[in-house]
Design a protein that fits this description.
GO terms for molecular function: oxidoreductase activity, acting on CH or CH2 groups, with an iron-sulfur protein as acceptor. This is Coenzyme F420 hydrogenase. Residues 80-156 form the Coenzyme F420 hydrogenase/dehydrogenase beta subunit N-terminal domain. The chain has one domain (25-395). Strands 3-2-4-5-9-10-1-11 form an eight-stranded mixed beta sheet. A three-stranded antiparallel beta sheet has the order 6-7-8. Strands 12-13 form a two-stranded antiparallel sheet. It contains 16 helices and 13 strands. By secondary structure, it is of the alpha+beta class. The structure holds flavin-adenine dinucleotide (FAD) and iron/sulfur cluster (2 copies). One iron/sulfur cluster is lined by residues 21-23, 27-30, 32-33, 41, 44-45, 47, 177.
Length: 405
């Protein structure tokens, strides 16, 4: 960061809470505009300027190889594996690999703080981003807040605190903005630990999803769209409720996802050093993508606490994806008995491991491509990255008519 940057920061002012953001209804509330880094919003915001390939080259030393379909799907990577903690952290989203890496980095003095997101006292799903400086603060941020979260709203505190080594945990849209302003933060080293992310919602949208889908919305602690084609809701009493994907009320839920997330093509968090999700791994395991040497350095800190196995891939997703496209467009909802039957059938013969991840990416990218084409036709060409165009290009899409917002 130069003296000129510092002066610019002094002059810029965060937007007031609740005021309209530069990306308008496409804003994913990443938090950048809650800080004086709004000065850089035009080039940083994932919904105003899409420049993933350029940032990949800067951060990982190369952008996706467009001749390699694995790169289209999973981004730049050095290594992938399935892993789970030998001793899982109770109450974590999966086995707590993310929280464990953050704790090791802090306690070994590799970083001075960790940007992560806790929830407010009043509402377990209301995100509250913090810079954690203790193990307890990191653990209090475990488990997904399945809502848009302004993680970058704490960026001003970094420059003010004089911190030089930082770990940021976040999802794709947050990380794209972060990477664009990285050099303006005054850090010596930034580490980025990402999770995949899809179908996120506002707090109000989340309530509608829970009310429409769960038998007991008020006791839901967390949920996940699992590889067995069911949504698993974990309840306060320790029980798990399973609702088949194919039984979801698509018509009711069509508007529930945030416009940002219906326009998002960075499911796999392309710009993180290390990504920890689940969808490329067998059921019960987490999926790890190491994108660069920094990511490997982060993973090495916890390998003695993990069981690992190589990634696998089984089945063929293409037919199922092709059939789901018009069904989603028409808002088809199956009766629950048929949805359960279909879930069991697909789980038996359906895509597994990396092929399941491809299934999920294909289904979401085709849906999102049609959403952008319909609502933001003028943005389509520049906003959809080349790798996503190649993914979508494998399918026959229905004709949609533009209805610009
Ligand atoms: P934990 O140790 O429980 O830590 C979770 C970390 O996530 C915490 O550090 C917290 O700061 C951070 N976090 C929580 N909520 C948010 C948020 N809203 N924004 C930014 N950071 C947050 N993985 C897949 O493979 N496929 C998916 O489709 C998928 N969808 C996801 C959708 C959302 C909205 C989110 C937040 C994550 C999604 N993930 C997905 C990632 C996955 O659910 C787990 O978060 C990941 O595997 C880490 O699990 P863990 O037990 O190691 O995390
Ligand atoms: Fe600002 Fe982030 Fe919203 Fe873009 S997504 S307008 S950078 S808060
Ligand atoms: Fe951001 Fe995309 Fe996740 Fe929405 S789906 S919160 S836009 S990374």
């Amino acid at each position: 960061m130069t003296a000129t940057d510092s002066a610019k920061h002094q002059k810029s002012k965060a937007l007031k809470p609740g005021s309209r953001r530069p990306a308008k209804e496409l804003c994913s509330e990443c938090g950048l505009c809650d800080t004086y880094y709004i000065h850089y919003v035009k080039e940083s915001c994932a919904f105003l300027t899409q420049h993933i390939a350029e940032l990949e080259a800067e951060i990982h030393g190369r952008s996706r190889n467009l001749d390699n379909p694995d790169d289209w799907y999973f981004g730049v990577s050095q290594n992938m594996m399935a892993a789970r903690k030998k001793e899982p952290i109770e109450g974590a989203q999966w086995t707590g690999i993310v929280s464990t890496i953050a704790i090791e980095m802090l306690e070994k003095g590799i970083v001075e703080g960790v940007v992560c997101v806790q929830n407010t006292k009043e509402d377990r799903f209301q995100p509250m981003p913090i810079i954690a400086k203790t193990r307890e603060e990191i653990l209090a941020a475990k488990v997904n807040k399945p809502t848009l979260s302004p993680n970058l709203s704490v960026l001003e505190q970094i420059e003010k605190s004089g911190m030089k080594r930082l770990l940021v945990i976040g999802v794709g849209c947050q990380i794209q903005a972060l990477r664009t302003v990285e050099k303006k933060l005054g850090l010596e080293k930034l580490y980025v630990l990402g999770t995949p992310c899809v179908d996120n919602v506002s707090r109000a949208g989340l309530q509608k999803f829970l009310d429409t889908t769960s038998r007991s919305p008020e006791t839901v602690m967390s949920y996940e769209f699992m590889q067995d084609f069911n949504v698993h809701f974990k309840h306060e009493d320790g029980s798990t409720e399973k609702v088949p994907f194919f039984g979801l009320n698509t018509k009711e839920l069509k508007d529930v996802f945030a416009p940002s997330c219906l326009s998002c093509f960075d499911y796999v968090n392309s710009l993180a050093d290390l990504v920890v999700g689940y969808m490329g791994a067998p059921f019960g395991w987490q999926w790890i993508v190491v994108r660069n040497d920094t990511g490997q350095e982060m993973l090495d800190l916890v390998t003695d606490q993990l069981n690992t196995q190589p990634v696998m891939s089984q089945g063929n997703r293409k037919e199922a994806v092709q059939q789901s496209i018009p069904a989603y467009e028409k808002g088809v909802t199956l009766p629950m008995w048929a949805a359960k039957l279909m879930g069991v059938f697909i789980e038996r013969i359906g895509p597994k491991g990396l092929e399941y991840a491809r299934f999920s990416i294909d289904s979401h990218f085709t849906r999102n491509y049609l959403y952008v084409k319909r609502n933001y036709p003028e943005k389509l060409e520049a906003h959809v990255p080349e790798y996503a165009k190649r993914i979508v290009g494998q399918y026959k899409l229905p004709e949609v008519y533009s209805n610009p917002k």
